[in-house]
Design brief:
The protein has 2 helices and 15 strands. The chain is mainly β. It folds into 2 domains: about 1-195, Jelly Rolls (Sandwich); about 195-235, no CATH class. The strands form 4 sheets. Strands 4, 5, 7, 10, 14 and 15 form a 6-stranded antiparallel β-sheet that branches. Strands 3-6-13-8-9 form a 5-stranded antiparallel β-sheet, with no helix packed on it. A two-stranded antiparallel sheet has the order 1-2. A hairpin with a 2-residue loop joins strand 14 and strand 15 (about 190). It is globular, with a radius of gyration of 18 Å.
Length: about 240
């Protein structure tokens, strides 16, 4: 379970997810988030939009007992079709249990260049790089840290905090409208691609120009996702 707390101090919803063994096994869209075509080297991405006070995002489930120190990778491919990053958006929002108050709070990893977290590339697929890296910053101000907390310092201080969920959030429309597609979200070793056997149909299989493609026909594509789903369920 997590409580979505907007960095822009907006009034937002309580989103509830079910824990599973893999991050990539389950995700939910919320707010104005919708699937869209195309993705990055694939048929499908998720379009996140914020205009005015609207917001959107993707909620990823997390294994029980994982801590901030256990998180080693957060990254995503993104494509801005309107606006750019700003106002702390887009961002990864890491829900943690504050052991002092026993309440859920957030640690943030922002897209864009510090110190303003702006200048995201527009109209081209771009990768964030790993946002959990030495030399980068996390915003740990909600848990008693600082807005520009060096990653290694944040792990030293808050590494034992239990992680209960992770969201990718867009809500900077109060500054300027934002519309961005995201794909290939990597959390540790798990990559969420937003694809399924259905996206192989109607020529979709031909749009897989990168991993896990390319495919030679629709049947091969459908078989891949059917096999992947079976393996995920049984793990």
């Amino acid at each position: 379970m997590f409580k979505y707390i907007s960095n822009a101090a907006l009034t937002c919803a309580l989103i509830i997810g079910t824990s599973v063994s893999l991050f990539a096994a389950s995700h939910e869209l919320f707010g104005d988030a919708v699937t869209t075509t195309p993705g990055y080297n694939s048929p499908t991405a998720v379009k996140l939009t914020s205009v005015g006070t609207s917001f959107s995002g993707i909620d990823f489930t997390s294994p029980e007992g994982i801590t901030l120190a256990d998180l080693e990778t957060l990254s995503a491919d993104y494509f801005f079709t309107m606006g750019s990053c700003g106002g702390g958006s887009p961002r990864f929002q890491i829900n943690v249990i504050d052991p002092v108050t026993n309440t859920t709070k957030n640690i943030f990893a922002y897209f864009g260049d510090a110190p303003n977290y702006t200048n995201c590339t527009q109209n081209a697929w771009t990768n964030t790089g790993d946002l959990l890296s030495t030399g980068l910053f996390l915003d740990t101000s909600q848990v008693g840290g600082t807005f520009y907390d060096p990653y290694e310092s944040a792990v030293t201080t808050f590494g034992s905090y239990e992680v209960t969920g992770i969201q990718l959030v867009v809500d900077g429309g109060f500054i300027a409208p934002q519309m961005v597609s995201v794909d290939n979200v990597v959390i540790n070793g798990d990559t969420t691609t937003f694809e399924s056997a259905n996206t192989c149909k109607n020529g979709g299989w031909q749009m897989f120009t990168g991993d896990p493609g390319p495919f030679t026909n629709q049947g091969q594509c459908v078989s891949y996702f059917a096999r992947s789903r079976s393996q995920t369920v049984t793990n």
